[in-house]
Backbone:
């Protein structure tokens, strides 16, 4: 039947507003990236003493960064607050040791006494001299030479011995493999890299009164204290938050059609094809990877609570803590991405209405490709960290950058796989592109899908010797824009399409919600990426822009909470559909809760510059990370998992496994809440207090994190972990496995027709 009447559409201003938001956001973000290359702390080609004798070279610094990556040390400790939490912040530790060396030298010169033997008045005088000496930038850009005073040379020699001792025993380094680094040349190069990072954190940036890292880390002895800009832009970020929230509330009050409002539409029949059923095995793999993530996370928690022993088993020799953290991060990204990939393939056919030729075979082939990448990269990370790939570690082993640990070869395969996935989406959605009623939704679906492989490409823009500041800028294009931005927007599009296809909302309501979310999320989220760069060698201009726009990221999360009742009312409008997909909606509602708490409250808590200055790299960061990553993206992934399972299997089977889904829902949410309330939040606040009282270096050392109270709080993760694992993940795995097994037992593959609410 040919459609003759015109299709109602939204105002062109929605499209223009999204385009303006994207152009502005990427324009500013692009400018910040260009400035990163010129403003990054320089790597001197020669570091000399006062007699112009070479202490170490730029080649040593770059080689030391490679040692840092090759041994997976970014998943043990951190540089400038970014990395793992099992070990110290290497830059802060070196800086404090350097400051103490200067203090000892000045105390002996002026008073003939050790620094600790001085009176308080004399020590205060020495402290002032230490800060003045360290903050002078003795780098000559004309010759690319950095000059160290005698105390700086002494600190470099002392630090080589310190790190040689650190890597000997797992109980003293958070569970690294025994005698991890013994080669004196590698230790010297690694120390040179730490020394460069410490110099960049204290030497004043030319033309300013603060260091290259905006005076991070906090160390009063070294003269590192928060800048005035950190206070000013923190205050202005609150104004931006209040103003943005007020404007959003005004818009929601003035235009009552915003959000999940509108007249429900009739739902057309849809047919579940064999190609769609083929996505169930993706969900099975995602559930198994979730289980793996939980086990790896439990091992990390044990390493923090008791790094020297794993119930009598020498775990560190074969599964050291930095490997466990690498696998914990990678399995999280893999299982969430796998569920999103499978859910998108399933929904694409609902939108297109047809199964492309050989789509089922293509989905099987893509599954094998993803399995190769997942298994191959994780085995490569194991081999790389255990130093079984001495020459090819960067390409096939552990690349070493946090969240981007998989080797470059596996990254390339992943991008190829995502491009193939996009082609499959295009094939399935193609019929909708020719339908005037579905064309707009199909375009959004494909644009959001294309952004997934597109915005993973920055992972290829740097190597193992690239300046750390530049790498960290590109890393957060992946961590923030790819994971927190375009993946979340893609799922928003999927949810809107599902609601429309179920007949819960009108097509215009679905489109309007997509446009609105794009404006709200990317309006603050693009430029707000820079809140990760406050202390990694960027200028105060980045701090000013990212502090204000990062605050606006809370606005859409507030709107989600405001619109929660409308969402609940919408999902109760058609009893047959809503009851059928009750647990899908329950997981989506959980997303709204954790989005506001984890991403909104906990995220804003640590994103203001003045709080971030003291907090970054403490347990408050994974407190936000667990609530946001698992609570938002994890629950979204499971919502898609449950939806696909519900549609793909027979009614009789679903009636049996739905109880397991219910148990999993409550187990996952209660377990995550206990994990945060009993351990991560109080542990983070305790560590934050230690930073403010004693300095950043102190709160990151194992002498503090291994003290009785921090270790007790780490052990208190166990109740939440056990509930999450046994009442949450395991029932989910059994449900998905049961559902997949029922499909394998089916004698035929007759299509299942899902009726509209009216016909039901």
Residues:
């Amino acid at each position: 039947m040919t459609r003759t009447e015109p299709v109602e559409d939204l105002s062109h201003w929605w499209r223009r507003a999204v385009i303006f938001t994207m152009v502005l956001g990427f324009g500013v973000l692009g400018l910040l990236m260009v400035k990163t290359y010129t403003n990054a702390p320089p790597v001197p080609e020669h570091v000399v003493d006062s007699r112009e004798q070479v202490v170490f070279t730029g080649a040593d610094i770059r080689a030391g960064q490679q040692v840092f990556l090759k041994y997976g040390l970014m998943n043990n400790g951190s540089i400038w607050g970014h990395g793992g939490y099992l070990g110290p912040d290497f830059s802060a530790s070196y800086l404090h040791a350097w400051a103490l060396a200067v203090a000892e030298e000045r105390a002996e010169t002026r008073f003939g006494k050790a620094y600790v033997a001085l009176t308080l008045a004399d020590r205060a005088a020495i402290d002032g001299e230490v800060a003045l000496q360290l903050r002078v930038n003795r780098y000559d850009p004309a010759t690319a030479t950095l000059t160290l005073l005698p105390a700086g040379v002494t600190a470099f020699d002392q630090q080589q011995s310190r790190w040689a001792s650190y890597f000997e025993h797992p109980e003293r380094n958070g569970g690294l493999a025994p005698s991890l680094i013994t080669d004196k040349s590698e230790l010297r190069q690694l120390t040179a890299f730490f020394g460069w990072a410490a110099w960049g954190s204290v030497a004043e940036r030319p033309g300013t009164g603060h260091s290259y890292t905006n005076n991070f880390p906090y160390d009063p002895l070294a003269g590192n204290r928060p800048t005035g800009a950190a206070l000013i832009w923190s205050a202005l970020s609150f104004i931006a938050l209040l103003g943005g929230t007020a404007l959003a509330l005004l818009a929601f009050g003035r235009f009552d059609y915003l959000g999940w409002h509108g007249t429900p539409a009739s739902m057309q029949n849809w047919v579940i094809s064999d190609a769609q059923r083929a996505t169930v095995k993706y969900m099975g793999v995602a559930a198994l990877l979730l289980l793996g993530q939980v086990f790896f996370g439990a091992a990390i928690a044990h390493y923090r609570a008791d790094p020297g022993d794993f119930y009598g088993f020498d775990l560190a020799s074969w599964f050291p803590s930095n490997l466990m953290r690498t696998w914990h991060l990678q399995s999280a990204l893999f299982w969430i991405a796998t569920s999103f990939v499978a859910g998108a393939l399933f929904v694409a056919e609902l939108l297109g209405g047809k199964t492309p030729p050989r789509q089922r075979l293509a989905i099987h082939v893509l599954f094998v490709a993803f399995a190769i990448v997942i298994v191959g990269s994780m085995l490569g990370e194991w081999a790389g960290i255990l130093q079984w790939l001495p020459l090819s570690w960067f390409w096939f082993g552990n690349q070493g950058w946090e969240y981007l640990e998989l080797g470059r070869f596996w990254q390339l395969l992943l991008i190829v796989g995502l491009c193939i996935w996009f082609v499959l989406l295009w094939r399935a959605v193609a019929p909708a592109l020719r339908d005037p009623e579905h064309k707009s939704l199909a375009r959004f679906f494909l644009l959001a899908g294309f952004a997934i492989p597109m915005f993973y490409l920055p992972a290829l823009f740097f190597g193992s010797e690239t300046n750390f500041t530049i790498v960290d800028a590109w890393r957060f294009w992946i961590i923030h824009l790819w994971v927190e931005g375009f993946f979340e927007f893609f799922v928003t599009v999927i949810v809107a399409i599902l609601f429309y296809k179920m007949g819960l909302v009108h097509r215009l309501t679905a489109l309007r919600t997509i446009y609105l979310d794009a404006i709200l999320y990317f309006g603050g989220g693009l430029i707000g990426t820079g809140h990760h760069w406050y202390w990694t060698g960027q200028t105060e201009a980045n701090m000013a822009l990212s502090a204000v726009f990062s605050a606006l990221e809370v606005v859409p999360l507030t709107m989600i909470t405001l619109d929660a009742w409308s969402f609940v009312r919408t999902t109760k409008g058609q009893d047959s559909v809503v009851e059928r997909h009750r647990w899908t909606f329950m997981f989506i509602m959980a997303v709204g809760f954790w989005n506001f708490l984890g991403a909104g409250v906990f995220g804003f808590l640590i994103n203001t510059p003045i709080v971030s200055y003291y907090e970054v790299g403490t347990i408050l960061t994974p407190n936000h990370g667990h609530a946001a990553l698992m609570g938002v993206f994890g629950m979204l992934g499971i919502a898609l998992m449950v939806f696909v399972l519900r549609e793909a299997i027979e009614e009789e089977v679903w009636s049996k496994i739905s109880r397991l889904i219910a148990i999993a829902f409550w187990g996952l949410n209660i377990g995550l809440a206990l994990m945060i309330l009993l351990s991560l939040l109080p542990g983070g606040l305790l560590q934050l207090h230690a930073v403010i009282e004693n300095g950043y270096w102190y709160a990151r050392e194992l002498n503090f994190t291994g003290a009785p109270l921090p270790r007790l709080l780490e052990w208190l993760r166990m109740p939440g972990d056990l509930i999450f694992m046994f009442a949450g993940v395991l029932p989910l795995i059994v449900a998905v496995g049961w559902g997949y097994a029922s499909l394998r037992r089916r004698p035929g593959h007759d299509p299942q027709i899902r009726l509209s609410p009216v016909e039901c």
